[in-house]
Design brief:
2 copies of one chain form a homodimer. By secondary structure, chain A is α/β, with parallel strands linked by helices. Chain A has a domain at 93-119 and 223-398: Rossmann fold. Chain A is built from 15 helices and 14 strands. Strand 8 of chain A pairs parallel with strand 14 of chain B. Chains A, B: It holds the Pfam family PALP.
C-alpha cells in the first residue's frame, strides 16, 4: 500500500465532498481520507464516514438523472458531474405485477441495473472509484475481474481518458474477453484462477506507484457507490423505504451499503423511519454466508465456489459478517438456491417482466421465490428485488433451456399446423 | 389486412391521444385511425397526423423519465404510462470529447440507445406499437426479425402480458435465438432467409384475426416511436436543435422520424427554428440509399445485402426515398463505409467514450468520420451521432480485432516484463 500513498498536499480541498474520514469498521480508528483500505491499528476494513449538511429532496431531484444527483452523500467533489464519466444510475424501478402474481406477492418491484452503461451495477461503484483515482492523481485505473467489473473499469477509464489495465484469468471465455478488450489495449490474461489474478493485483498495487485498483486500494471509495442503489429505490418509491428487499451477496458489500443508504436517508429526514427487512441471496455452490446464517454462527467459513453464478462466486466474502449482522438485525435472512433454480428464475423473470438477467439476478429472483415459499418473507409486504446485471453476459446459462417452439417451412399452412395461431 | 380490421365501435375515445388520422405520404388521402398501413387509394405508406394542443416544456419535464414524457406528441392515450411497458427512452446523451478530438470536431454528442431495456432503439417503436395493439384489442403481438426487433417485441409482450409470436430465420445464430426465446415460448424458426420470414409475416397478418405485427399492420403507430429520439436530443441539449445529426439508415424510418420530431418541436415553439443538416449512414454492403444519393437520382434500386451490419441490411428500404428528401433538403448527405471501417469505428467509439456499440452504431460513427474527412460535414458545427444498439449483440464483429495485450504467469516479475507497468 505504501507505494500508492499520495502526498496530502496534492489532494485538493473538497476532493471528497462531505466525507470526513476513513473509519475502521472493527475498532473505530479514524484515518484521514486517502488511498487506504485497511486499518493501521487492527487491519480491519475502512469505510467512509461523513459530516452531512442538511440535504433536501428538492436539491436531489434538481440534480442530473444519474448517481451524481446524490453527490452530497458520496465521497466525491461537488463538480463531479463535469468530469467525463459513464453517467451510471437512475435505472428503472419497475413494478413487477406479473412476477408478483406468479409468486403470490401483493406488491413487488424490480430495481433493474442491467440497463447501466456497461449493463451491471458495477458502473456505480467504478464511477466513485474513478473519482477517487482522479483526486489521488492516479496514473493507472485497474482491477482484477472475470466479468462485470472488468467491463465497467475498462469503459469508464476509456471515457475518462485514464490508462486502464484489466487483469483476467487466461481461461476466461473469449466473448467475455472481447467485452473488455474492446475498451482497452491493456487487457492482461493471467495464467491462473481468479484468486491468482486477485493476488497478483494486490502485489502490483503494493509495488507500483500511482495505480488505483478499484477493488483494492481505493475500495472504501468504490464501495460507497452501491449506496446509490438504496437512494434510488427510496426516491423512486416516492421517498419511502420498502418493507423488504432481496439483494445478491458476493463480497456482501452491496447489501451492507444499501442498508447504510437507507439508514442515512432516515438520519437526514429524507424518508420516514420505519422497519424494513434485508435478505441476502446466494447460489448453493458458493453460499458461505447463507450457511453461516442458517447455522446461527458469526464466522464465515470460506468455500471453493462451484456455481454458474460466477459474478457471485466469492468463496471468502470480505463483508460476509456484516451481511449477517444486517440481515439478523433487520429480521431478514440469507438463503441460497441451486444452479437449476437459478436458470429457472432467469426464465421466470424474462417471461413475466421482459427483463433478461444474468445468473446473479437469477439467483436473487430464485431466492425471493424460495423465501416466499418457505414463509421467511411476508407476501403481503411491499418488496424490492435487485437485478444487478444483464443476461447477455451469461447467455450460456439458459441457452440449453430455451429455444424455438417450432421450426417450419416458410408457408402459412406450415405455420397453421403448429397450433401457435 | 382485412382480417385485422377492428370494429370502430371497439376503439375507445382518446385511444390515440392527439393523433387525428392516418395520412398517405404519397397522395395525402386521409384514413381514420385504425390498423391500416397502406393507402386505399394509391397504396402509399400511411403516417400518423396530429392536432396538437399547446404543449409546454414544463409539462414534458414533469413527465416520467422515459418516452411517455412526450405522450402528447405520440399516438397513445393520456394514461399510457399506467399500462405495463418496458419504459424505454430518456437514454444518455453524452458529450464525446475524446471522440471529437480524435475526429477533429469542435462539439460532438452521442445519443446512446444501447442502454434501452433490450439494448436498442427498437424498444421505443415497440412500446408505441404495443399501445396500438392494446387499443385495437389485438390478441397476439408479433414480428419477423433477425435481432433487435425480436428482443424488443418478446420482452415488451412478456411484460404486458400479451401473447407474443416472433418469427426468425432458422439459420440465425443460437445466441441471438436465446436472446428472444428467453422472453417467449412462441419463437418460430422459419426455413428461409429474412425475406421469406417477412413474407410469411405479411401472409399471417392477412389471414389471422387480431394479430398485431409491429412492423406490418401497426407500422404507422410503431414508426412514430422513433420521434422520441429527436425529442430527447433536443430536450437534453437544453431545448435546442443540433447543427448536424448522423443517423443510421435501414428502412430509413428512424431518420425521417427524427426530422419529423425536430419539425414538430419548431412548430410547437418548443425549440427555436434554425437550420440543421441530417446525414444518413449505411454499410457499403447494403447502401441503396447512399448509392442513389451519390448518383443524384430519386429512385432507390434494391440490392442484395452483404454486410456485417445486419440490423441495417434492408436491401429495399421502404423509406429510402424520404431519406433522400430529408438529407437533400437539409443540406446533409448519405454516405457508406466498408465492413472493415465498421469494425474500426466500433473499437474507436469504445476506446474513446467507453460505449460498446453494435455494427449499426459502428456504421454511424464510421460514416461520421468519413463525412468529416471528405469535408461533407462541418467540424466546427455542433454534431450529434446516434448509437442505436449494443455491441454485446454483435460480438463476433470485433472478436478477431481485440484481445489480451499479453498472457502472463501470475507473478509481478512476469507482469513487469510486459512493459505495461
Amino acid at each position: 500500500m505504501s507505494a500508492a500513498v499520495v502526498e496530502k498536499s496534492r489532494i485538493r480541498e473538497g476532493a471528497f465532498g462531505n466525507a470526513r474520514a476513513l473509519v475502521c469498521r472493527e475498532c473505530g480508528n479514524e484515518v484521514e481520507l486517502g488511498p487506504h483500505y485497511a486499518c493501521s491499528e487492527c487491519f480491519g476494513p475502512l469505510e467512509v464516514a461523513y459530516d452531512f449538511p442538511q440535504v433536501t429532496r428538492e436539491e436531489i431531484e434538481a440534480g442530473p438523472r444519474n448517481i451524481w444527483r446524490y453527490k452530497a452523500l458520496l465521497p466525491v467533489p461537488t463538480d463531479i458531474e463535469t468530469s467525463p464519466n459513464t453517467e451510471p444510475g437512475f435505472t428503472r424501478l419497475l413494478e413487477a405485477r406479473n412476477l408478483a402474481a406468479e409468486l403470490g406477492l401483493t406488491k413487488l418491484w424490480v430495481k433493474d441495473d442491467s440497463t447501466n452503461p456497461t449493463n451491471s451495477f458495477k458502473d456505480r461503484v467504478v464511477a466513485c472509484a474513478l473519482s477517487a483515482a482522479r483526486e489521488f492523481h492516479s496514473k493507472v485505473f485497474a482491477c482484477p475481474s472475470t466479468g462485470n467489473l472488468a467491463n465497467a473499469v475498462a469503459a469508464a477509464g476509456a471515457r475518462a481518458g485514464i490508462k486502464t489495465v484489466v487483469f483476467i484469468p487466461s481461461n476466461l471465455e473469449q466473448p467475455k474477453q472481447v467485452n473488455s478488450a474492446v475498451f482497452t489495449d491493456s487487457l492482461v490474461a493471467v495464467e491462473g484462477n481468479y484468486d491468482d489474478v486477485n493476488k497478483l493485483a494486490s502485489e502490483i498495487a503494493g509495488e507500483e506507484e500511482g495505480w488505483a485498483f478499484v477493488n483494492v486500494n481505493v475500495r472504501p471509495f468504490y464501495a460507497e457507490g452501491s449506496k446509490t442503489l438504496g437512494y434510488e429505490i427510496a426516491e423512486q418509491l416516492g421517498w419511502r423505504l420498502p418493507d423488504q428487499i432481496v439483494i445478491p451477496v458476493a463480497s456482501g458489500s452491496q447489501l451492507t451499503k444499501v442498508h447504510k443508504a437507507f439508514q442515512e436517508l432516515i438520519t437526514l429526514g429524507l424518508v420516514e423511519d420505519k422497519p424494513y427487512k434485508v435478505y441476502g441471496a446466494q447460489a448453493a455452490g458458493c453460499s458461505p454466508v447463507s450457511v453461516a446464517y442458517k447455522a446461527g454462527v458469526d464466522a464465515i467459513r470460506p468455500v471453493k465456489p462451484d456455481t454458474i453464478a460466477k459474478s457471485l462466486a466469492i468463496g471468502n466474502p470480505a463483508d460476509g459478517i456484516y451481511v449477517l449482522d444486517v440481515c439478523r438485525q433487520t429480521g431478514g435472512a440469507v438463503e441460497d438456491i441451486t444452479d437449476d433454480e437459478v436458470r429457472e428464475a432467469i426464465v421466470l423473470l424474462a417471461r413475466t417482466e421482459g427483463i433478461f438477467t444474468e445468473t446473479a439476478g437469477g439467483t436473487t429472483v430464485g431466492v425471493l421465490k424460495k423465501l416466499v415459499e418457505s414463509g421467511q418473507l411476508d407476501p403481503e409486504l411491499e418488496t424490492v428485488v435487485i437485478n444487478t446485471g444483464h443476461g447477455l453476459k451469461t447467455l450460456d446459462a439458459v441457452s440449453g433451456a430455451v429455444g424455438p417452439a417450432a421450426t417450419i417451412a416458410p408457408s402459412y399452412a406450415a405455420f397453421a399446423a403448429t397450433g401457435l395461431a
